[in-house]
């Protein structure tokens, strides 16, 4: 983006926001958390709101993240500083600094949110990341409705709440997800994030102050778990909407022979359909130097053409500049177009850390996965993919913290890739069929009349009604 253009978008919040192409009576202020994995789905939702003809939208964030916002969405940038110059939570070098980062984010964004709401003359609602527990209070003080937006899936959220509400004094191992969960699921204790459980009452109390809850998911994938989440604590039913998949990348990708395209896609053009395994562990790698060495050796030993993307260069990783061969390609230290990669005809499998954005990218493009969770709710996403949906294979079995930290040897990586790509042909084919069916359902959900479009329209209608607006274009309920 041109420097002058960026400066004009991110200067003082006192300037009026530029309108979307088709302003509507209801204006939505989206407030993402300051982490790239959290920012992307809310930014995508804001872009969709600007283009749906029923709402307008603004993203409230910091100058660092304003540069990542879709060009179609107005941005209000609040000044933000943190020791060491860190502006992205996911890139903090030390987990002990997390509480201070949350405090700094609130100090920067809470007053800016109040100013943004009060600056808009018409009907306004706030849509904020679920981890911003202070946002419902700010919206309430400004007299506007609030929507909690979950950037994790309904299965993971429902599992955590079920364990929190119904667990015994001490967690058994394995844990059978309690409370009448929609499907029988067993989790190891290490899969349950105890720190997240400790903070869950705070987030649940904040969510109770929201008018509605929205998940970045869709009915064919998680309807049962959204319904469970709606009723899990026995209180009056929550208003829960499935409005995804909201994805940062392009939704319908056309792969052409344009030489100006990313070299990664050009390399994929030369590979056979469904032959390449793609490996990536999100915006931060999270793997040690020894593990990176074993992962690379395992990908080579699998005999499968591979594309390995390491977005952040780490110790022990050589800097590769789109280094490619007939057998594999390694890209380190730069962003890669993941949605386009997974949509490419050559890609037949995805070795993933199971972050929810990556899960949706794979499901939406009908690509099966080899799961390698590292932290947070990723282990719960693995259980959904492997045990419930049966569209993935595990790279490793994790029964303890030591297993999480242990180096996975190259032969285990090669074995998992083999299973994913076709060893045991009948099982691999069945996985591929199931995930392709989910991909079709994901596309249908976000088309006109689809389940997610209908849920979004209902939510907008109800928010308008709270402001006394009459819906001029009724939707199917």
Automatic annotation (TrEMBL):
<keyword id="KW-0328">Glycosyltransferase</keyword>
<comment type="similarity">
    <text>Belongs to the UDP-glycosyltransferase family.</text>
</comment>
<keyword id="KW-0808">Transferase</keyword>
<dbReference type="InterPro" id="IPR035595">
    <property type="entry name" value="UDP_glycos_trans_CS"/>
</dbReference>
<protein>
    <recommendedName>
        <fullName>Glycosyltransferase</fullName>
        <ecNumber>2.4.1.-</ecNumber>
    </recommendedName>
</protein>
<dbReference type="Pfam" id="PF00201">
    <property type="entry name" value="UDPGT"/>
</dbReference>
<dbReference type="InterPro" id="IPR002213">
    <property type="entry name" value="UDP_glucos_trans"/>
</dbReference>
<dbReference type="GO" id="GO:0016757">
    <property type="term" value="F:glycosyltransferase activity"/>
</dbReference>
<dbReference type="GO" id="GO:0008194">
    <property type="term" value="F:UDP-glycosyltransferase activity"/>
</dbReference>
């Amino acid at each position: 983006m041109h420097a002058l253009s960026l400066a004009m978008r991110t200067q003082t919040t006192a300037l009026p926001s530029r309108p979307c192409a088709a302003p509507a009576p209801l204006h939505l202020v989206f407030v993402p958390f300051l982490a790239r994995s959290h920012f992307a789905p809310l930014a995508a939702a804001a872009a969709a709101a600007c283009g749906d003809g029923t709402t307008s939208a603004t993203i409230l964030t910091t100058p660092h993240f304003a540069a990542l916002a879709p060009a179609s969405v107005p941005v209000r940038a609040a000044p933000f500083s943190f020791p060491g110059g860190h502006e992205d939570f996911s890139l903090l070098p030390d987990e002990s600094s997390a509480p201070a980062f949350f405090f700094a984010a609130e100090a920067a964004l809470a007053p800016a949110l109040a100013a943004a709401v009060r600056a808009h003359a018409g009907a306004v609602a706030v849509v904020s990341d679920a981890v911003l527990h202070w946002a419902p209070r700010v919206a309430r003080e400004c007299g506007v409705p609030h929507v909690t937006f979950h950037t994790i899936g309904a299965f993971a959220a429902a599992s955590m709440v079920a364990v929190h509400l119904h667990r015994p004094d001490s967690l058994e191992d394995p844990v059978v997800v309690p409370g009448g969960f929609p499907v029988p699921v067993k989790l190891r204790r290490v899969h349950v994030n105890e720190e997240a459980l400790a903070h869950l009452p705070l987030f649940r109390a904040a969510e109770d102050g929201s008018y509605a809850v929205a998940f970045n998911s869709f009915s064919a994938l998680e309807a049962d778990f959204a319904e469970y989440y709606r009723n899990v604590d026995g209180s009056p039913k929550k208003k829960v909407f499935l409005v995804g998949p909201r994805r940062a990348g392009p939704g319908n990708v056309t792969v052409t022979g344009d030489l100006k395209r990313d070299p990664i896609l050009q390399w994929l053009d030369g590979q056979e359909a469904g032959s390449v395994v793609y490996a990536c562990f999100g915006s931060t790698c999270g793997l040690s130097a020894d593990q990176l060495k074993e992962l690379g050796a395992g990908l080579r030993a699998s005999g499968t053409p591979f594309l390995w993307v390491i977005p952040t260069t780490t110790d022990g990783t050589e800097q590769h500049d789109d280094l490619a061969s007939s057998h594999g390609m390694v890209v380190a230290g730069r962003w890669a177009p993941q949605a386009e990669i997974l949509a490419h005809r050559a890609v037949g499998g995805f070795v993933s850390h199971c972050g929810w954005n990556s899960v949706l990218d794979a499901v939406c493009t009908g690509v099966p996965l080899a799961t390698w969770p590292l932290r947070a709710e990723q282990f719960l996403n693995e259980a959904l993919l492997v045990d419930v949906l049966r569209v993935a294979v595990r790279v490793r079995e994790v029964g303890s913290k030591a297993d999480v930290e242990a180096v996975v040897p190259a032969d285990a990586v090669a074995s998992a890739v083999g299973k994913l790509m076709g060893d045991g042909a009948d099982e691999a084919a069945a996985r591929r069929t199931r995930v392709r069916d989910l991909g079709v359902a994901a596309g249908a959900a976000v088309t006109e009349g689809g389940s997610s479009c209908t849920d979004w329209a209902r939510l907008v209608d109800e928010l308008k009604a709270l402001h006394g607006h009459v819906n001029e274009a009724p939707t199917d309920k």
